[in-house]
Amino acid sequence: MTSHNTAEAKNFGFEEHLEHETRYDKADEFIEVAYKLWDSWQEDALVLDKETGLFADPTKVRHINHEGRWFKSQGPLTVPRSPQARPAIMQAGSSDRGKEFAARWAEIIFEIDPTPEGRKAYYDDIKSRAVKYGRNPDDIKIFPAVIPFVGETEAIAKEKQAFHNQLVDPIAGLVTLSSHMDYDFSQLPLDEPVKDVQVGGIRGLFELALRLSKKEGLTLRDIGRLYAEGILLPHVVGTPTQIADRLEESFKNGEADGFIISAAYLPGAFEEFVEFVVPELQRRGLFRKEYRGKTLRDHLGLGKASLTPPVRQPEPVGI
Prior knowledge:
It contains eleven helices and nine strands. The chain is α/β, with parallel strands linked by helices. Among the domains are: about 1-40 and about 50-80, no CATH class; about 145-255 and about 260-270, no CATH class. Strands 5, 6, 7, 8 and 9 form a five-stranded parallel sheet that branches.
């Protein structure tokens, strides 16, 4: 729905992608329709009476009759209501419009920012925007992504990272960057700072690349290398204790509600993190030792899902 390049649009029969802001308008309506469909079966609609052959009470299953700018659906949903009422909604908005969409709908947010100050600013921004939609900021879980390199010693961990980074090609990174931004970066000089061009793809991620280029004096080639090393994700390198220290600091500093672990290599990076880092986090009381619920919402501490779409609250009127 909010995918980012023309090639994806052509796979679905369109000559070009929707304009950036417009595709979020379409996504808003898409989620609104989904809410209606999830709510088209009442919680107690299922009868499951084998003797009478009655599967569900038809009075508790309804049409939604949605007609909007982008979608038209009679409903009802073709399956009964989920035990969670609806899935947990995950999103990755980083542009201003994307963050507004996230503040309204998202319950899990995937974030990319290699700097503590950037993660903190993003966290505070999203949480404050949520209030405008009558939402509890604690109902939005923000998970920055990190790439861990775990070693028995810090030197071993750094050696793993160096080996990984030596394998990357800046041009390969720029190919991926071009795809993500829906812009051909091969037409720009490699050894000059990144230019502020109009991209049709992931604007928030491009703004991050621009910020890093200006702050650290990076060229387009440098950004290509960073992109190839992990799509600008921060590398967390060290012993299990050192990595746990970094994650704990970020968590307690109000940068994150948790983390998404992005593996530099599979399956080893996940295995090392689970075997060595997770026990250290558990020892500190920062990670569960057992599951206490039955659904993803339970595991995330989200509580029962609402099927009432959030709406923007009116601004307070000054006296």
